[in-house]
Amino acid sequence: MKKILLLSCITAGIVVMHACKPKKDEVVYSPVNYNFSIPDFAKKYIGEIKQPSDNIATVEGVALGRKLFYEKMLSNDNSMSCATCHKQENAFDDPRPFSKGTNGALGNRNAMTVTNLAFSQQFFWDGRRATLEGQAHDPVTNPIEMAAMWPDVVARLQSSGIYPDLFYKAFGTRTIDSNLVTRAIAQFERTLLSFNSLFDKYYYQGDSSALNAQEIRGLALFTGKALCNTCHVMNTLFTDHALRNNGLDNDPADAGLMSFTGLSTDRGKFKVPTLRNIAQTAPYMHDSRFATLEQVVNFYSSGVKQGSPNIDEHMPDFGSGLNLTASEQADLVAFLKSLTDKDFLTNTAFSDPN
Question: What backbone phi and psi angles, to 5 degrees, belong to 291?
Fold first, then answer.
């Protein structure tokens, strides 16, 4: 009798365990926190990534965001994704002077790189958004970009055969909304970290052979005579995230920050972009006026318009200009090219998963 009772208990236990065990194809909500890959030398200057309390990155959320970043269902005619204008080989920038929307219209500003934005607090050239979630929201409904309506986008994703389960894995719900879409994309964008250039190997990792003599001379100019380091701070990010007027025009056609704040004191101010992977993100400036780094350096050497309204304090009156020699300009350009992170441009963790 005891043997029969024991056998019954064992059998019952097996049945219970089997019933509790997830089925082979069952989707489980068990998110794992994402581990950001930030080298120690960068942490020394910029610390850990500060994430919103309601959008802590998870492995599942990042995977969903990556898929959505490349998802063309986010546009009104299923022809464009975030990656259409932010190409990995161009450091998630657009090689075109102005991006073309689904209706063929051109934007009025150059697309910005999506590199190391996890450390930024202002987004777009005019700084109008304060979070990556907000930055991910706007292009979807912009009439000259993806030109979609969020209810339509959500309906497409909801009716797809894959997205409800992916949202469940990431957020514990199969009910999709625009907030969850932008949160997922923002999670992925926070992983787009670039800290592995030749400059990093030379300056932070002690490899004296990583830069050649010309690049080393360019580094000295960058932190010295050329004054680049005053705005493109060498804190591993190569930007101070500020919005400044760098003297492009005496009468700026684009109001910049003023178009967002309405303040005349903000006229002509634009976000200082990172210089990481700068050789891959041509053309340059908010209006794409410079096609090459050589033209950019030449502008700062002798072309700054001192009569520009609200010209930044870091753009002192150079008189006739910095007057960098041709060889100094070439050295500076060589250094800027050493900021390219080839691994970042080819990292399969950032590429199209479809």
Answer: -85, -20
pTM of structure: 0.91
Report the alpha-carbon distance of residue 51 to residue 119 in Å, rounded.
9
Helix (H) or strand (E) holding 170: helix 163-171
Class of domain 40-194: mainly alpha
Q: Where are the beta strands (DSSP E) in 133-289?
A: 243-244, 270-271
Tens of pLDDT, residue by residue over 171-196, are 999 999 999 999 999 999 999 999 99
pLDDT value at residue 319: 59
122-131 pLDDT per residue, tens = 999 999 999 9
Name the residue ranges covered by the structural domains of the chain.
40-194, 198-338
Check: CATH 3.30.420.40 for 198-338? no
Q: Residue 353, preceding bond cis, omega within 30 degrees?
A: no
| CA–CA dist 285, 278 (Å, integer) | 11
Q: Say which residues have a Cβ less than 8 Å from residue 202's Cβ, sequence separation at least 6.
A: 208, 210, 211, 215, 216, 338
The half-sphere exposure of 267 on its side-chain side, counting CA atoms within 13 A, is 11
Instruction: Give the separation between CA 101 and CA 96, rounded to whole angstroms.
Output: 12
Domain 40-194 and domain 198-338, same fold? Reply is: yes
* Alpha-carbon distance values, 96 to 87, 99, 139, 280, 287 (Å): 11, 6, 17, 12, 11
